[in-house]
Specification:
about 25% helix, 2 domains, FAD/NAD(P)-binding domain, alpha/beta
Length: about 350
């Protein structure tokens, strides 16, 4: 992924202008897009500098196996030992894959492997020459997979259940402020909040530059786009897939890639099983308070798990900034104001409130 989808003011630093200043200071490339979305390479270098400055370069290389209550604390059993924590922040995006109903009969059957986008690393696929790749989905992930498969010599079909939808950001910018959040915050029912957030996110969308690139590949004969025609059924025949669309046309493929998204689900983090009975959830989404704490245990959530408190943009970089601010205040009593401490410093001014 060469370019991020968020504006350059959304990043881990408290200072909104820190990324722009960092790019200028180090002479890094810019995307030139309308909203100055940052290049992935520049963003990675910037984040690395933030991590270095914060002294977070040496994480504990262990897996959490069991998280249980220990009085006012949490006992975290890991693959390498045990930790006692005063607070736990779940920032690992636990989720379940969204699998279309027509795929279910294929699961467990003999035939080519079905891959979800979350499991595909294009960097490990150097040559797909002679392969027929069918990519299902209409979002940016589907677009990146299609471009990558074409670049590796595959004959690619991109199939989406609705026409390709062009949107600069995956969430309307009105959800980053009071325009939409005022009504969302006034909604008391978690179920209704989830319905509002789901409607706001809708299905997959792509920025115009990706749609333009896909149409270029289609014009070159390297990509076939079937958008707006859902898949009705699928079968395996002689070692390949045969998909029948709603208009009774068929598509044959050797590889089937599902870019059909994921659904946040706290329950998929099995290490939390001992404390899950104390946490209210709606379809896998936890119900957090203002501090993004869930239940009676000192557990906070970030990312899409914070949707019922922060809204549909919780899983974006904006949501990460908002979550970090609330959790920081809950733990330390400190609230940061985004006032630059100096050009390229990446730090904001802190005040106690």
């Amino acid at each position: 992924i060469d370019v991020l989808r968020s504006p350059s003011v959304h990043h881990p630093s408290p200072d909104p202008g820190a990324l722009f200043a960092f790019v200028q200071e180090h002479g890094l490339g810019r995307s030139g897009l309308t909203y100055d979305q940052p290049m992935s390479s520049a963003f990675m270098r910037f984040c690395t500098s933030i991590i270095d400055d914060a002294g977070l370069t040496d994480p504990i290389p262990e897996r959490a196996m069991r998280i249980g209550s220990a009085g006012d604390h949490l006992r975290i059993e890991t693959s390498g030992g045990s930790l006692l924590a005063e607070r736990l922040v779940v920032a690992s995006n636990p989720h379940r894959r969204q699998i279309p109903s027509w795929v279910v009969p294929l699961l467990g059957c003999a035939g080519p492997t079905i891959n979800h986008a979350a499991d595909i690393d294009l960097r490990s696929l150097s040559d797909l020459s002679g392969q027929r790749v069918v990519i299902v989905g209409g979002g940016l992930s589907a677009g990146h997979l299609a471009v990558g498969a074409c670049a590796r010599g595959a004959a690619v079909h991109l199939v989406a259940r609705r026409p390709l939808m062009v949107r600069s950001f995956d969430t309307d910018p009105g959800w980053l402020g009071p325009k939409h959040l005022r009504a969302f915050d006034a909604t008391e029912s978690p179920t209704q909040r989830l319905a509002q957030a789901s409607a706001a996110r809708g299905g997959g969308t792509m920025p115009d530059w990706m749609v333009n690139r896909l149409h270029e590949l289609a014009a070159e004969g390297r990509l076939c786009i079937r958008a707006g025609v859902p898949i009705a059924t699928a079968d395996t025949i002689n070692g390949h897939y045969e998909l029948t669309l709603a208009d009774n046309t068929t598509i044959t493929g050797d590889l089937l890639w599902l870019a059909t998204g994921t659904i946040p689900d706290l329950r998929s983090l099995r290490a939390l099983s001992p404390v899950l009975p104390d946490i209210a959830t709606v379809d896998g989404y936890p119900v957090p308070d203002h501090d993004l704490r869930i239940g009676r245990h000192p557990v906070h959530v970030m990312g899409r798990l914070a949707t019922l408190e922060l809204g549909p943009a919780a899983g974006n970089l904006w949501g990460a900034r908002m979550a970090a601010r609330r959790i920081t205040h809950a733990i330390t009593g400190v609230d940061f104001e985004a006032i630059p401490a100096g050009p390229g410093s990446g730090r904001g001014r802190f005040s106690r409130r």
